[in-house]
Amino acid sequence: MVGFVYKADPVRGAVWARLFAERMPEVGFHVWPETGDPATVRYLAAWQPPPNVMETFPNLEILFSVGAGVDQFDFGSLPPGLPVVRMIEDGITGGMVEYVTASVLALHRDFPRYREQQRAQRWEAIRVHPAAARRVGVMGLGVLGQAVLAQLARFGFALSGWSRSPHRIEGVDCHAGQDALPGFLAGCDILVCLLPLTPETRGILDQQLFAALPRGAGIVNVARGPHLVAKDLLAALESGQLSAAMLDVTDPEPLPPDHPFWSHPRIWLTPHVASMTQPETAVEAVIANLQRHRRGEPLVGLVDRRSGY
Asked: Which residues contact 125 (CB under 8 A, 6 or more apart)?
């Protein structure tokens, strides 16, 4: 029997096991640390694979990420020919759309400022601007970025997007490449980071980027903590270049108790919960990919190992 091992949250793993038993009983499904006969394991779904994964599972054919990202994998320790597949499923997309929409609306309607006023017992109205007068830009135009833009379009925001390669999205002013980044940033009252973490994007949310935004802009980081330079964010908030930041990711996670983000009045923190893989839709997506694999068809979410995308 062909084996499949799940190595991530065991509570959700139990749901995976039940669904695999119902949908694909011919596969021997195991939740780590149970593996069955390691020689029979062809598929591994993990947040972090075990060290020396090919020694543990010598006949592994596919490594599935249980999340939308794959930057947590050490690609240097993985065989070049091993297919790595990111999770693309409706649960992740829906959760991200909800979180980013809530964050953008909170910035648009000045909720961080109102929270400061509440703490100071100050009752003071801030002028309300229509959504059409607010410019929202999304960095990263993959599945999640495009889904977020489609939802934000319903509110009437002026939308733009930036990515490393050209895109055409109806109703979105699309920019591509490093040379186009300053022009994109100049038109973002609210900036959302949904970039994958690569050597090129690590530390991209820095002083130079913040300075290119309109004064008083807000940011939302739902990508990865290492995209952000913490000291540069604090300086930009202190100077007024940025008005507020909504952060679902930090570096490290969790932050140490004395980190200034915890108590900063214009930083809203959540513990990496913007989107979570939903077991039911995740299993459906993985099984569909296993069926494609059997038929020799391309896998949905297959990572370009040269770029990490």
From this structure: none
